[in-house]
Amino acid sequence: MTVPDVTVVVAVHDTVPYLAACLDSLVGQSLEPGRLEVVVVDDGSTDGGEVLLDEYAARHPGVFRVVHQPDPGGPAGPTDRGADLARGRYVLFLGADDRLGEEALERLVAAADAWGSDVVLSDRPFTLEACLRAVRVSVPADYDHYVLVLREDRGNATERASVLDRLRGITALQQVAAELADPGEELDAIRVRSFAWDVPRLLQDGFLLLDDGLQRRVCAEVGRMIECFGARAVYDRLPVTARLRLELAAAVRPGALRDQIRYEAAHGDPPVVAVGRRRYAGYPAFRDARLGLPDGLFLLGEEPLPVDVPPLNLAQQLWRGVVPEQLRRGLRRHPVWRRLANSVNGGRG
To answer: What gap in Å lies between CA 175 and CA 78, rounded to an integer?
Structure first.
């Protein structure tokens, strides 16, 4: 049997409003017949998507391979199963509510073959490990290959994973980084991505919907991640809102964290509190004795020390008052005038 150039793996669970567009984008690929296979794993769909998949497989034999599994879970399980079934030289993972550009696979395969790339497109934390182990990673950015579709509920197919599953995924990514990334800027950049964005977004409005026991489990898990992967080493590169929510979670203070989330939703940016030369985000938690959070968590910035500039002497005042600035600049290009200006003006133009 001929090995296809690329296998597209699609994990499906109740995405009917978007599924047909996703599948049509695969049927319409510019790759010649035989170069593409699509492995679709239906993860217990109940919205008619399972029927639609069988219809596409019947209409396009040799392209679609559909697997049905009855027990829905997160997207990782069906994605892994699809990867196990893949026969292509390359594998691409496509969300069931997203779609590809018509020439996407042809361009990506051609780019990977031409450049000898190990990685062109993939997913996390698999992507991170693949990129860190790869000899060459290529990013062909001259075409809209992948269309990420934001659903009406503002989510995406991966959002159905539980908050604990998503935290485990972030933990796995950070573990890969700790093992394979070079210490320094490379490792810090991966830390910043997770702790400035991935973890704090789990401590937003959705956190308020969890029961108290689950909120405490989430906080404890976040605290373990912070300790295990050195998040505090990159706190100075995180926004105040992110590091504040992280520390409230690490202290297992779900009540205070709920208050912080509600305050941000109701008020947006806090007032700025000036203390000497330092400026702090004036959230209610700032210098709250019950919480005991360090001021550094709230630090926005610091005014630079003033530089003492001696006053202009009479010759300098005359030079600047009589000779226009543009002319002074022109004259300073000539060595004789520059020496004269420096002697009169003390090197201050």
So the answer is: 23
Q: Give the span between the Cα atoms of 94 and 99, in whole angstroms.
A: 7
Calpha distance 179→225 (Å, rounded): 15
Q: What's the CA gap between 192 and 178, in Å, rounded?
A: 13
Which pTM was predicted? 0.60
Q: What are phi and psi of 173, to 5 degrees?
A: -65, -45
- Give the pLDDT confidence of 107-138 residue by residue, as tens digits: 999 988 988 876 654 756 667 777 787 788 77
- CA 47 vs CA 39, 40, 51, 71, 94: distances in Å: 20, 16, 9, 14, 20
Joined together, the tokens standing for residue 142 give 């001259």
Q: Taking the CA atoms of the chain, what radius of gyration do you get in angstroms?
A: 29
- The whole-number pLDDT of residue 67 equals 95
- Local structure of 120: helix, strand or coil: coil
Residue of 138, 224, 232 whose CA lies nearest to 188: 232
Phi (first) and psi of residue 334, to 5 degrees: -95, 130
pLDDT at 119: 62
Which DSSP category does 238 fall into? S
Residues 6+ positions from 215 with CB-CB distance below 8 Å: 207, 254, 257, 258
| Per-residue pLDDT tens digits for 61-105 | 999 999 999 877 777 788 889 999 999 999 999 989 899 999 999
